[in-house]
UniProtKB/TrEMBL annotation:
One of its GO terms (molecular function) is ATP binding. Keywords: ATP-binding, Nucleotide-binding, Transport. It comes from Marininema mesophilum. Belongs to the ABC transporter superfamily. The lineage of its organism: Bacteria, Bacillati, Bacillota, Bacilli, Bacillales. Residues 4-236 form the ABC transporter domain. This is ABC-type multidrug transport system, ATPase component. The keyword Cytoplasm does not apply.
């Protein structure tokens, strides 16, 4: 069973179709990246998944519970940060979470303090629990937002552009936190972001949309198609002319080429290179950049 699922979902506003017959699923423990160019319908779909708006047709389910038929029960299994987390700056981190804990009917009053302490520990904010949120850095506020999303013990957490504005250290800390939570709790994440290199380091599954339609979904490793191999060669000019007769090739440095070739064909290519008196100094498999694959998808 998927922890997050869309089945033939469409959303129309007047004569405009914002989401067009979209279906996909996120499994337990997956970190799923959600990609699309501006205006593709990402925000609309997130609003549908979080129950803020209703679909024109189709079903959305969280942990197998239909959002449209039993919204309250379905959303008990969901945590979300849509855009930036917002907290009253004059409250401490602990007080802010205690107030939000009251919104979770499945969390008894007698357990709220213990739960707040638990989630603050999970996001490494115990030391700042009694500090006012107004003194928190942006990275700390993002972690406090994730702590808020964890209060209801969700099966899946939706994050909308979580790394926006973070410096490299903040992005690394956020990435480590998401991976740790997945490892320790089995929570799934559905992450919308324009930072494709960051998603490539974090996600194992992807959903790509364009103009309200699903254009691709699957494992991250499958999105790049034929793998790239970095060849270090001498003489490189002669090698490039020879290789490009059979394979896509790109010059990436003084003596290095990227060759789009399957592993089964490497031995034959190496043989041809050596027969033509070209030295093969090294061959290294590279993962095609998600950015390049994404641009190919949405440009076609």
């Amino acid at each position: 069973m998927f922890v997050l699922e869309a089945k033939n979902v469409s959303k129309k506003v007047g004569s405009r179709t914002l989401i067009n017959n979209m279906s996909f699923g996120v499994e337990k423990g997956q970190i799923c990246g959600f990609l699309g160019p501006n205006g593709a319908g990402k925000t609309t779909l997130i609003r549908l998944l979080t129950g803020l708006i209703q679909p024109t047709k189709g079903e959305l389910a969280i942990n197998g519970i239909c959002v449209t038929k039993d919204r309250t029960k379905a959303l008990m299994n969901l945590g979300a940060i849509v855009e930036s987390p917002i907290f009253f700056p004059y409250l401490t981190g602990k007080k802010a979470l205690l107030n939000l804990a009251r919104l979770h009917p499945q969390l008894p009053r007698t357990q709220r303090k213990a739960k707040v302490k638990e989630v603050l520990e999970k996001v490494s904010l115990t030391h700042a629990a009694d500090q006012k949120v107004g003194t928190y850095s942006l990275g700390m506020k993002q972690r406090l937002g994730i702590a808020q999303a964890l209060l209801g013990d969700p099966s899946v957490i939706i994050l909308d552009e979580p790394a926006n504005g973070l410096d490299p250290m903040g992005m690394r800390e956020l990435r480590s936190l998401i991976l740790q939570l997945r490892e320790e709790t089995g929570i799934s994440f559905f992450i919308s972001s324009h930072l494709l290199d960051e998603l490539q380091q974090l996600c194992d599954h992807l959903v790509v949309i364009k103009q309200g339609k699903l254009v691709w979904q699957g494992e991250l490793g499958d999105i790049s198609g034929t793998p790239l191999f970095a060849y270090t060669l001498s003489p490189v000019d002669k090698a490039q002319k020879l290789i490009q007769q059979s394979y896509p090739v790109q010059r990436i440095s003084k003596n290095q080429l990227n060759v789009e070739i399957s592993e089964d064909e490497i031995g034959e290519l190496n043989k041809v290179l050596i027969e033509n008196e070209i030295q093969v100094l090294s061959v290294e498999k590279k993962q095609k950049r998600l950015e390049d694959a994404f641009i190919e998808m949405v440009s076609s």
